[in-house]
């Protein structure tokens, strides 16, 4: 990724601004999501500038130095630590490119999300997927929160390291994965088996559904297996991000 890509400005505060020393630095250096502009506090020392210089040149990212007070106005936070990046819309990996990596299925699971609405949940799932060795995360285009700076912050920077794919049809996606040898495991309280690590001996795609309604019926019907997480409390379900983390951990035990 040596050439600067044309980038569309996202258009509002939550989608435009990324801030914080670690997250901004990691984003600039990784080159996964290239900022439109980097704005640093005039109070920063030469060491910080030197660390970023080669990446700014490689990805042709404009640099602006400004008073810390201006950074606070831009990101509407006093926790910027002298680092603010103006972001373009996130560019998802093409499924056709990602699919080539799946021609020889591995023990690393895939995480597929059906209509997740909460940016904090999506960020938490990204973080769990990256930490627990998932091969990638796949989302649909309809009724699904996308990758924004708010999601990136919730993911603790995992968005810079984990492939994220967006597809038109999750039903078609599941069919394609099953044709390459993956089993699709969906979460459901009804007509399901208890979760155990032995369920993940085959290459697996884990399907997590909407926070309120769960996995859509047409997607559940396409699953090879429906699982539930054994529980002993009074509540009948877990937060979607927590459930995803538990399933990813169970799958990692077979790695």
From TrEMBL:
Q: Which Pfam families match?
A: SpoU_methylase, SpoU_sub_bind
| Gene3D superfamilies for the chain | 3.30.1330.30, 3.40.1280.10
Please state what class of enzyme this protein is: transferase
Biological processes annotated in GO: methylation; RNA processing
Keyword field:
Methyltransferase, Transferase
* Cellular component, GO annotation: cytosol
Q: What is its EC number?
A: 2.1.1.-
Boundaries of every RNA 2-O ribose methyltransferase substrate binding domain copy: 17-93
- Which superkingdom, per the lineage? Bacteria
This entry's Gene Ontology molecular function terms read: RNA binding; RNA methyltransferase activity
Xref: InterPro entries: Alpha/beta_knot_MTases, Ribosomal_eL30-like_sf, rRNA_MeTrfase_TrmH, SpoU_MeTrfase, SpoU_subst-bd, tRNA_m1G_MTases_N
Q: Which PANTHER family match?
A: 23S RRNA (GUANOSINE-2'-O-)-METHYLTRANSFERASE RLMB (PTHR46429)
UniProt name for this protein: TrmH family tRNA/rRNA methyltransferase
